[in-house]
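Work Package 3 committed the consortium to producing structural models of liganded targets before the mid-term review. Because experimental data for this complex are still outstanding, the team generated a predictive model from sequence and the ligand definition alone, so that downstream docking and mutagenesis planning could proceed in parallel. The input record is reproduced below exactly as it was submitted to the modelling pipeline, together with the SMILES string for zinc ion.
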Amino acid sequence: MDDDDLALAVDVGGTTIKAALIDPAGSMVASEHRPTPQGDRARDAIAEVGRSLLAQCAHATVVGAGVVVPGLVDRGAGVATYSANIGWRDLELVRSLGAEWGLPVRIANDVASGGVAEHRMGAGVGTDDFVFVPVGTGIAASIVSGGRLVSGHRGETAEIGHLAVGTGIPCACGQDGCLETVASASAIARRYAQLSGHDVTGASDVAARLSTDPAARQVWQDAVDGLADGLGIVSLVVAPALVVIGGGLSRAGDALLHPLRDALRRGAALVHPPDVAVSALGDRGGVVGAALLARDGWAAES
Ligand SMILES: [Zn+2]
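The resulting structure, written out as tokens with the ligand in place, is given here.
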């Protein structure tokens, strides 16, 4: 492999498919995006955006492709098993995309991809016990323990958004009191709108009102307390040295980190609470992880 060999990386999100050609240092040489079609039609959009990028850089050597998707993934079979968001079931990707692009293709879950990217090239470099928590429309986690990505029998994502933290609010999953009901970026915006009567476009609008608006402060504090409770449970189980917050909420920066660190320190059961940081790679984490997947199948994590 030459130093300038590229990887084709595709991050399939609920609304946008992001694709990039990425060099070994993790830099994007070229990128494109498309809206994500619902259901099985997503496969054709993934194939097309990949073809378009490869045609743009026909002179370059591309060593392989990594495609990361939401929901459940059978990495061995090369099938995206289930995404509630995009509405596919058993979507075969590896064989058909490989034939179309003329490249070896690997697939994996998008939260795991963000976690591996932060571990190897972002905010988690230098620690082997680390949890990546993207907070957007939902909340999930990717756990690296002893340098290895924790993998359950149905995938690599920890569904910590549905940890019961006693919020008393019904969750879409059917339980009451899930972390997501107060601490997802969507819940923060929704609860602020309910409490204040003012519509906002997202959690960042609520963060911007913290110094002037008691309703914003209350909703924010509920989110911080919920996150501290949820991360406290995770910390009691796997004892990470560092928690990295990603997704839309990470853009709040210190307005999130300072109260979250304080709340975790107050958690009496945690003798060594983890440090908390925000994502270093931001929106690029998914494609950077997909490029690493293309290059070595995340061998360093398994
Ligand atoms: Zn739930």
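Reviewers should note the following from the model. The pocket of zinc ion is lined by residues 162, 171, 173, 175, 178, 180 (CB under 6 Å). These observations will guide the Year 2 experiments.
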